[in-house]
Amino acid sequence: MTRRDRGRRASGLPLAPTASLILTRSSANQPPLSCPVKQLPRNGRSERPIHSHCTTDPSCRSDKELLRLADQCVKCGLCLPLCPTYAQTRNEADSPRGRISLVQGWVNGDLAMTPRLAGHLDGCLTCRACETGCPSLVAFGQIMDGAKTRRVASQSRWRRALDQSWIAALSNPRLNAALGRFAKSYAHSPLARLARWLRLDRHPRLSPFFRLTGAIAVNARTRVPAARESTDIDLFVGCSGETAQGGAIAAAMEVFERLGIRANLPDTASCCGAMLRHNGFPDAARSHRNALVETGSNRPLVGLSSACVAELRESPELADAWEICDYLDRQPWPEALQLRPLRARVLVHEPCSHRNLLGGNASVHHLLERIPELDLAPMPENHRCCGAAGTYLLQQPEMSAALLANKLDPALSASPDIIVTTNSGCALHLLAGVQEAGRSVEVIHPMELLARQMPS
Ligand code: SF4
Ligand code: SF4
């Protein structure tokens, strides 16, 4: 019994579900869990951050610090109704409270990092919906990122190198651009027909890649750099902006132009490092952000994708980065600039990054309300993650598909013409779902809709 449980029993409160209880409940037929120290290369708990040189990175915690964060959880369970994975499985180990207990048990040395335990932790989307309802202000995202970093640090060198290389490839703007070109030429090629004929696109391990390729083929655009001598803002499109929401880049440049804002679109795109950090590689993530800081200016940094902006803000030097709709909503709008009317039903998707980390997407509604006759509504189930969550849609395809269905089915029942979203990963995931449903709904960035309705 833990010290907290002794205190709760003394005060007549029900005992918190401990990590061992959670696993015993859900794994009655499993062999008993063994001490993790045997499996970890390091000798017991660490008093220092895993990477000694990155004491300021929230993803790189000492065990003591990780436990201090986790111990702030009072196990009240108020976060449970907010958690999409718990709603799906109804398993305590797939809830925020359960995951915190598992991290505590693992870091304390009471639980081994078995595939089953890893599965419960990996099942977390890091959507951070749980943080929004937590009365103890538990930094759940930092706990999960810290635990992931600890796990990765304990893996073999070759496994770390393998994992880091494919995530680094996904974070590389040039490779992303090449992927976009490939997807476009592949979509209608004999190769695609052959893959469909062989039913490779139905294979459980391959299907996430095929469905994303189909969405990228629609959304990818080659961007045209617009570096200028004298500019007002720097536009940040991220490593996958060109691939995932390519049309939004030119559209954003047009909207800026119409509002008299001189935007700088650099020759080379950069990465915020989010995918690397959430997968346990905070060093590599930080080097991406450092490169951005070194090449940066004093101009406002305005990001197209809400998840990238949330990630940029994790660095103190980039803490004032803006999400593009939030930025434009605060700019004066010329009286003479009247948008053309559009009779269309538009659902506004609110990504978790915008809702839980940037304070909500009211600015998207404000901007789109400038389009006369638009039938604008929030997307149903906006409070739930769509299941994209960075690399999650590739790593946990079943849960990702289930969460998408929960969200997309009621949305498609509303017969929208367009779905708008401010996050590039969500855009691809939603579009892939629309394609799978055989519907012809556009999934675009709000900037694309604004640019289309600009007067000629
Ligand atoms: S709401 Fe906060 S304190 Fe309560 S169980 Fe969830 S994480 Fe812990
Ligand atoms: S971050 Fe999201 S998926 Fe993970 S425990 Fe919290 S609410 Fe659940």
UniProtKB/TrEMBL annotation:
Required cofactor(s): [4Fe-4S] cluster
GO molecular function, one term: metal ion binding
Enzyme Commission number(s) of this protein: 1.1.99.14
Cofactor note: Binds 2 [4Fe-4S] clusters.
SUPFAM superfamilies: 4Fe-4S ferredoxins
Superkingdom of the organism of origin: Bacteria
Any Pfam family: Fer4_8
Residue numbers spanned by region Disordered: 29-53
Catalytic activity line of the entry: (R)-lactate + A = pyruvate + AH2; glycolate + A = glyoxylate + AH2
Protein name: Glycolate oxidase iron-sulfur subunit
Organismal lineage: Bacteria, Pseudomonadati, Pseudomonadota, Gammaproteobacteria, Chromatiales
